[in-house]
Structure formats: C-alpha cells, structure tokens
Amino acid sequence: MRNAAFDFSEMTTSVVAVTTDAVRNGKPVTGYAFNSTGRYACGAPMRARFIPRILSAPPEQLLDQAGLIDPAKVLGCMMQREKPGGDAERSVPIGTIETAVWDALGKILDRPLWHVLAERFNGGAQPAAVPCYVGGGWYRPHGDLAALSDEVKRHLQAGYTHIKIKAGGVPVKEDLARIETVIGLMTGPDHLAVDANGALSNDRIKDYARALAPLGLRWFEEPCAPLDYGSFAELTKTYDAPLATGENLFCLQDVENLFSFGGFRSDRDILQVDPPHAYGVGTYAQMVARVERRGGTRQRIFPHGGNMMSFALVAGLGLGGCESYPGVFAAFGGFADGMDVRDGQIALPDYPGIGFEAQPALYKIMQEVANA
Asked: Of 239, 152, 163, 244, which is closest to residue 197 (Cα–Cα)?
C-alpha cells in the first residue's frame, strides 16, 4: 500500500524493553514501546548513545523523591552531550525509550498510563470514552472505487463514524471521485478527512484547495512539506476549512514555529504530533501546555499513530481524539483486546501501563526483545 509520498514495502520499527528492578507479581516490571509507524527503525543511535547513558548513570539519579523511576530524569540523562538542533535525528529513539519508561512507571504504580497522565498533567480529569477515527483509503495496486467502498463499509460496520483517506497520489479528478464515493457512504462530508502526506507541489496544493474547499471536509491534512511553513501559511489565507499537520514535527520548537510562522489557526486547524517521535510523553505534555498558551485547545490535538501509546496520551491529557489503522501495520496497529469502537468512541481500559500485554501478537514480539 502507499500514500502520495511513499510506499510501505521497506518499513521497519524499533521495539524497546526497559526492565526495572521493581517486582510485581513475582516478576521484574518491564516497560515497552515502539517508534510508531511511518518512520524507520532507529536501533543504532539507541545502542550507540542513549541506552549506554542510561545504564551507566547512578541509579539514584534516575529516581524521583518516592524512589520510582522518573521519566524526566531518564530523558535528561539521554540528552547529555547532545548538540542543540537536528532534533529528528534523536527525538525518535529518545522518545521511544522515554515512552517505555512511562509504561514501566504505570505498571509499578499498578495504574493505566492514561490515569497517571490525567493526574499529573490534566487535573485528574478522565473522559468517559475517547473519540477515534479510522485511517484508510490507501492507494493499492489494482485499487478501484468498489474496493474503496467495501473498505469504508467495513469500517462503518465496525463502529467508526469518522474516516480519513489518502489524497494526492493520483490526478485531482480521480481523487475527487474517491472522495465523493466515500462521502456518499458517510453521515456527512464533515465526517471525512483527506491526507496528502506532504507530497503536493505548490501548484497541486492550489488545485486541491479549489477542489476541496466547497466540500466541507473534516480536515485537509499535510498539504505541503512539514517544515514548509510559508506554503502552509499562504494556504490558510484562502482555504477557510480546517487544515491538519504536525505528524512530521519532532520538537517543541517545531510546534512554536508552526504557530509563529506557519499561519496555524487555533480556532480550526488540527495538530498531529506523534508522541514517541517527538521526545516522548513528558515532552508531549509540555507541548500541549504551550499550545494552550498560544491560544490553542486540547480538543484540536489529535496525535498521529493508531496505537496504545497515542491512545494513552489522548485519554490522559483530554485531547481531541485518536486514530486507528485496523488491518494494517501487522501487530503494530490497533488497540488492546476488548477496546471496541462504538459510535466512534472507545471506552477507557484498565490495563496497567500502556496495555501492550493485551495485544497478544505485539506482546509476543516485545517479550522476544526483552529476553534477547
């Protein structure tokens, strides 16, 4: 399958296991994470720089006042001797390890990670359920409108109410036919978003903007390259409907620049930074606070990544919603057992930590890493 920018035939990921000396149920507590989807494995810098720094640190330097592993201190340890700038080169490996530390902490506390985050960063507020949309509509060999219709019908039958499909990978006329086909199956056009994955030229951005503007879509995602703030800002002047971006931003400064120079409109546009790719959970909480100081709201933050990590952030920080990728990305897509979608919502689970243990195929992989 492919989007407008690339296909996934070579896609890899890194799995991290952080084993602690805390014991629960007779076993050492281990935290897990993986570097989401859409970016390649990053084990080399983990092994060369970040893991050795953690393992060589005096244990007391990595603990909080209660004697528990402290994700912020582990993050600080990994950032030692790192030159400012070039964040994407290190933010993914660091963020993946940091997320695994949060998983371990949740298990040590015997509480879901979303619950821990709600207490620490959201005044203890807990939603009854988390809104969830489904990402699909990929470009596939021999794909046609009938296959796209069948896919959308399956998602709707599964309980999803909002869908996102790919755009920009075929001529505009063909994409419009795909979009109109999906709209015809939905409650309304505002239940459909489209994603160009940053692949459009300036001329094609204008063509798509003219074609999409009258449709009333939920949002138009990544119309231009992630750091092309000028093109994004220019588009906001003529395209009144919501835009979305941020999947390929990797640090707090990237988000600040989007607000300062990218024309990001706090009253309608959607921010989609991927937590493990942007230094992890603690930095994501800081990002949310900064967005609020810039006039944005949590309800317009939808983390990239259809996985349990992003779900925990959405539930714990009270964000707008999460995405799901049923049937793709093998064991690395989807949620834990029992987390069914009903009317576009997923009830909060009570698994300790992130909850990977309730994803049998993925947990098997993670155990192999822990035992290697």
From this structure: 244
Task: Name the pLDDT band for 190 (thresholds 50, 70, 90).
Answer: very high
One-letter amino acid for residue 55 of the chain: L
* 352/203 Cα distance (integer angstroms): 49
Task: Please report, for residues 120, 218, 261, the alpha-carbon distance to residue 300 in angstroms, rounded to integers and kept in the order given.
Answer: 21, 12, 19
> Is residue 304 annotated as part of the catalytic site, yes or no?
yes
Q: Tell me how far apart the alpha carbons of residues 323 and 306 are, in angstroms, rounded to a whole number.
A: 5
First-to-last alpha carbon distance for the chain, in angstroms, is 31
pLDDT in tens, 14-72: 999 999 999 999 999 999 999 988 889 999 999 999 999 999 999 999 999 999 999 99
Going through 249-302 in order, the beta strands assigned E by DSSP cover: 270-271
- Dist CA 230 CA 139 (whole Å): 28
Task: State the CB neighbour count (10 A cutoff) for residue 47.
Answer: 12
**Of the listed 107, 166, 191, 277, which one is catalytic?**
166
173 given a catalytic annotation = no
332-363 tens-digit pLDDT: 989 999 999 999 999 999 999 999 999 999 99
| CA distance linking residue 238 with residue 206, whole number of Å | 9
> How far is 186 from 149, CA to CA, in rounded Å?
11
Collapse the DSSP code of 66 into the 3-class scheme (helix H, G, I; strand E, B; otherwise coil) and give the result. Answer: coil
Which DSSP symbol is given to 185? T
Tell me the CB-side half-sphere exposure of residue 6, using CA atoms within 13 A: 8
In percent, the amount of the chain with pLDDT more than 70 equals: 100
SS3 209: helix
Which pLDDT does position 26 carry in this prediction? 94
Contacts of 315 (CB under 8 A, 6+ apart): 114, 117, 118, 126, 127, 130, 348
Judging by beta carbons within 10 Å of its beta carbon (0-12, 13-18, 19+), is residue 58 exposed, middle or buried? exposed
d(CA 353, CA 30): 10
Which two tokens mark 360? 């049998």
Q: What's the pLDDT score for residue 289?
A: 98
Distance, in Å, from the CA atom of 100 to the CA atom of 77, rounded to the nearest integer, reads 15
Q: What are phi and psi of 44, to 5 degrees?
A: -60, -55
d(CA 205, CA 274) in angstroms, rounded, equals: 24
